[in-house]
Amino acid sequence: MGNSSEAQYDKTVGDGKRFVGRVRELTTLEQWFNHPEAPLTIFSITGMGGIGKSSLLSEMISVSRDRGATAIWMDGRSCGTTPSGFMDYLSSTLGLETLDREGHPRPLSLLKDTSIEKRLVLAVDNYEELALLESWFMEVFVSKLPLRGILVILASRPELASAWRTHPRLHQRFVQMRLQHFTVDEITEYIAVAGALNQGMEGTITRMTDGHPLGLALAVEAADQRRNLPHAEWAELSHMISARLLLELTIPRLHPMVEVLTLLETANQELLSAVLDMTVTQEEYHMLRQMSFIRSGPDGLALHDMARVHLLRDFRQREPHRLQTMRIKIAKLLKPLHEQAGPHERRQIARKMLLLCQESMLQYRKYADVSGDSLFSPLETMRREDLPDLHRLLQQWCEYSLEPWQAVSYAPFLDELAHRYPEGIVLMRDKLGETIAMFITVLVHRKSSEMLLKYFPNEMHECFTPQELGSDPDQSDTHFALLAAARDDVPGYTREELVGYMALDRLSLLGDGARAMLVATNPHLKLFLQSIGFRMRRSGTRICDRYEDQADVLDLDLRNGQFGAWVMSLLDPEWQETRIQAGTTKAARTAWTEQDVRKMLGYLRSPGELHEYAGRLTGVRDGIRLQLYVMDLLEGRVHGLSPQDQMLLHAAYWTHAGNPTAAAQACSMSRATFYRHLRTALIRLARIL
Questions:
Q1: Which of 257, 541, 613, 644 is 20 to 30 A distant from 123 in Cα terms?
Q2: Model-level pTM?
Q3: Cβ atoms 90, 78 nearer than 8 A
């Protein structure tokens, strides 16, 4: 996909799609190859979704290999969120590229062996996913690269931080490439190259489209298939791509495969076949590759992001139960693959699993109830011009989150963090581009901990040992979550929902085996975090308390192979129950099961009958104390159950015990819906007990 009629860049790539143009950008690449010194250079390719960034990146890699360079393609979504994770991914990718060569037993040695004759091109797609590593990537990784023979290409939707353009050593090596829509002449040229259409249809598409490359490709594909779409829908293809039109362009036998791609970020032929319990033929796989809204890459096929959003929304509305069943099936297939994979592949599988379970977290946790389609763009790293808005957000947050004496450190901390580690501050914008929320996490290592200790010594000593605070930056694996702040005047959303939305997005930081820690005082936040697997312990002192709210330390540690089990427990509550029932150890035999909880709650009004269960809970000596503890859980005095689970269990076993019809009516549910949600609530209570 391109934007020029220059024949020299009119190529057919491996999946049968034409690449046309982007002459200015490809000419700049040729100039680098023709430069006698091949200076270290950074290309920044930016533009909106569907503008052709990935296509240009792929073409640049092809040109580079034709010129004799070693060229590798990396996906920012799979690079990891720690320096060591990124380096592992880079090493494995370089190793695959040089597999058939001799003399490079250590792939990373290629970075030091570059020269004018032996050039290396490192291309990173979806670079915005490396936002938390941007300071390290710029100041440590890129700054240590040789000054000859290396080209770094970064493709992202937003423009890179201004620090690249003002960097004392790198700014002269930095080249911006902002991709634009096609002009009318370029639309005409694209139509002529991409399809044999009659003149009347060519004129219609040229008049009705606005030059958006993905929309134009879909329009040409529809016309090439002789689809009888009215003129209004040609415009929709270019401006408002919909699930209905995408499915119209897909022959029926490919629909199941498109559904799988809707749930998976990437899938190869083998994985598609495994999920569908059928053989996806080579012919079908090739047909998928040729579709304009499906891209092919090193890891298989992927829907264009815009197409995926529309198709997922449609699937969710049409068949929510089949959607969830398919998610669970895919996760069960991926879990053993994740456990057996190497570091690079494990991160890719982890991301797929996170995408599967994220909506389950949104759907069932009231604290983060943003399961409706978001009106917001993805979270993005702050820029210097955002700082005044962030200070206003911070001031509001301090007013409702801290005691006055605790708030003193936050404003100077925000300024220093924005200067030293801006990638630690991500923000959310509304449709008008105004900042409405921010989330701050800091990767903890020797250098960043000096700053954190200066402003928040009490919190640091509550969470970390001196050894952890002194860890090497390249080995850091722990993210300290410092604050989430949001406006309370955003139409349709509460402040808590915005905070929850950002928190779930930040969980992606743990996908490649990392740990998150924080100090929390908000009881609702504690409940939410515990419900998704965070462990909580009392803080050692009361210095971090806020008025009557006690400060606790919460952490989620997924560094030791626990990621798969964590995802499955979120995606399918019954999976944990099955594990408990299948266990053979003493701990497994004495763990609470759903059936145990049902029986115990049946005796809730009879403390004497509860006595036999009391010994299974630490610190509960008799039936009366067990009754009090359970009622505290059901009525919210002890945190652990979501409000919906409290309502269901209280109605079923206390206010309307023995009368399920009345209990269902009290919860405004049909009996079938009531029983389904009640079982899930029982499973969650078993996990808490």
A1: 257
A2: 0.52
A3: no
pLDDT for position 363 = 44
| Token pair belonging to 542 | 């009361």
- Residue-wise pLDDT for 224-264, tens only, equals 655 555 555 554 444 445 666 676 667 778 888 988 988 88
Neighbours of 521 (CB within 10 A): 20
Q: Taking a C-beta distance cutoff of 8 angstroms, is the pair 211, 182 a contact? A: yes
The DSSP bridge partners found for residue 303 are 294
Q: Give the helix/strand (H/E) hosting 425.
A: strand 425-429
H helices present in 593-642, as ranges: 594-602, 607-614, 623-634
Distance CA(230)–CA(215), nearest Å, equals 16
Nearest CA to 292 out of 282, 281, 306, 279 is that of: 306
d(CA 138, CA 420): 12
Helix (H, G, I), strand (E, B) or coil at 545: coil
Residues in the chain: 689
- Contact in structure between 535 and 515 (CB atoms under 8 Å): no
- The single residue listed with the structure tokens 């803080």 is 539
One-letter amino acid at 334 equals L
- In three-state secondary structure terms, 444 is coil
Q: Is the dihedral of CA 102, 103, 108, 114 positive or negative?
A: negative
The answer to whether residues 689 and 597 touch, using CB atoms and an 8 Å cutoff, is yes
Q: Strand, helix or coil at 121? A: strand
Chunked mean pLDDT (size 10), the chain, 689 residues? 38 55 87 92 85 85 91 83 82 75 65 86 88 83 89 88 86 90 74 64 64 69 58 49 64 85 87 90 86 77 78 78 86 85 71 74 48 55 90 90 86 94 88 86 92 93 91 86 87 74 73 83 77 82 79 86 80 60 44 83 80 75 77 75 82 86 83 80 81
Share of the chain residues as helix, strand and coil, in percent rounded to the nearest 5: 55, 15, 30
Which among 117, 144, 152 has a CA at the least distance from the CA of 35? 117
CA dist 286 → 59, 234, 280 (Å)? 20, 26, 10
What lies within 8 Å, CB to CB, of 11 at 6+ separation is: 18, 19, 59, 62
- State how far the Cα of 429 lies from the Cα of 27, in Å rounded to an integer: 35
**3-state DSSP of 14-25:** CCCCEECCCHHH
CA distances from 684 to 104, 232, 419, 528 (A): 52, 50, 44, 13
Burial 281-312, CB ≥16 within 10 A → b, else e: eeebbebbbebbbbbbeebbbbbbbbbbbbbb
Q: 298: which 2 tokens? A: 């090193």
Structure tokens at 534: 């965070």
Handedness of CA 501, 505, 506, 508 (dihedral sign): positive
Q: What is the DSSP letter of 513?
A: T
Q: Is the dihedral of CA 463, 468, 471, 477 positive or negative?
A: negative
Helix/strand/coil for 311: helix
